[in-house]
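Action item from last meeting closed. Structure (354 res):
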């Protein structure tokens, strides 16, 4: 009997897709536990007032279903927080040992380690994905998250200062772009699992995971990304060979906008506001709601001034610090108006040039 070519093709397609169709959808998880396209957290600094009842674990929260910040009713060290719920998918992937899910965790400050090496990028993040989609969490918290076998936790060292981060859900088609951006930023990977099924499309992450990458690292690269629900992003990635202030020399000029930058203003380690180029960068000095200054804020973000035609918000992992111009890292930027308005309302004052 002669086989029916159409039936044979359909059968082969069914078997090829059977693993994908049975795969759970991975995404950022919101404060209430549901899947969201993106969310942003802003962990508030711990007040040094002995009478304060705050623990240093409270955080502001914003996601794709909202228009402005709200203070989360969870603490950031809780597994019911947005971070805890999102990272629950990492622990599920780790324990199940499924060959259809990959993850990669990086931080220049490795949990439970005092071995701090400047040869890596000043980068902090986490990716979990399958062939449908996944999420990318970019944040500012040293020593976070714990290795998967330890389960969810938040480091005590992350309580004192403010911290920030963004989680974005991406379809798998975006991961080839992310793969190249990670090569540029030179992350210090301390836990990863990338099954062979991904090695056809993802070239650099498996090599970085095995610490065997021989690829030439570009000085910098700008990439266009789109979230699973269609929000557009620009991702700026620099390596250690690009030795200039990413804010003033590249981002502001590329975005064609004056920027207000909030980074850790550690005394004697901050770059001053810069008005020497066409588009300026001003250091934010104080924030409100609640009131605190940049010396107690380890967050890394910037946004364009109200006078700019393009209103951008960027979140990342580099400070305006003379030493960090020699480090890899990056920022992810969007023109989402609710993100912009929410961050702009936090600003109390900034430093003029000169």
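Sequence:
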């Amino acid at each position: 009997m002669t086989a029916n070519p159409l039936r044979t093709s359909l059968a082969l397609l069914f078997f090829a897709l059977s693993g994908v169709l049975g795969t759970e959808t991975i995404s950022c998880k919101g404060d209430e536990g549901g899947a969201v396209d993106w969310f942003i957290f802003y962990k508030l600094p711990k007040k040094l007032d002995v009478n304060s009842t705050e623990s240093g674990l409270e955080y502001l929260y914003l996601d794709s279903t909202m228009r402005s910040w709200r203070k989360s009713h969870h603490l950031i060290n809780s597994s019911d927080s947005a971070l805890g719920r999102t990272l629950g998918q990492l622990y599920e992937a780790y324990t199940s040992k499924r060959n259809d899910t990959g993850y990669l965790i990086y931080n220049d400050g490795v949990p439970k380690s005092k071995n701090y090496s400047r040869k890596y990028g000043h980068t902090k993040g986490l990716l979990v994905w399958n062939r449908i989609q996944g999420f990318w969490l970019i944040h500012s918290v040293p020593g976070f998250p714990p290795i998967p076998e330890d389960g969810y936790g938040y480091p005590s060292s992350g309580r004192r200062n403010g911290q920030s981060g963004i989680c974005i859900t991406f379809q798998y088609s975006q991961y080839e772009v992310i793969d190249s951006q990670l090569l540029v930023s030179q992350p210090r990977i301390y836990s990863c699992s990338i099954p062979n099924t991904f090695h056809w499309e993802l070239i650099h992450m498996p090599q970085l995971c095995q610490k065997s990458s021989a690829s030439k690292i570009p000085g910098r690269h700008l990439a266009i990304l789109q979230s699973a629900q269609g929000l557009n992003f620009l991702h700026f990635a620099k390596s250690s060979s690009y030795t200039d202030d990413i804010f003033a020399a590249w981002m502001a000029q590329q975005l064609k906008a004056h920027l207000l930058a909030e980074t850790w203003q550690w005394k004697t380690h901050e770059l001053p506001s810069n008005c020497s180029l066409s588009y300026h960068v001003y250091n934010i000095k104080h924030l409100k709601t609640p009131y605190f200054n940049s010396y107690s804020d380890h967050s890394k973000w910037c946004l364009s001034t109200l006078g700019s035609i393009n209103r951008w918000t960027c979140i990342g992992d580099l400070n305006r610090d003379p030493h960090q111009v020699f480090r890899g890292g990056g920022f992810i930027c969007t023109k989402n108006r609710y993100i912009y308005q929410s961050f702009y309302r936090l600003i109390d004052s900034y430093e003029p040039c000169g």
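Note appended to the action item: The chain is about 20% helix and 25% strand.
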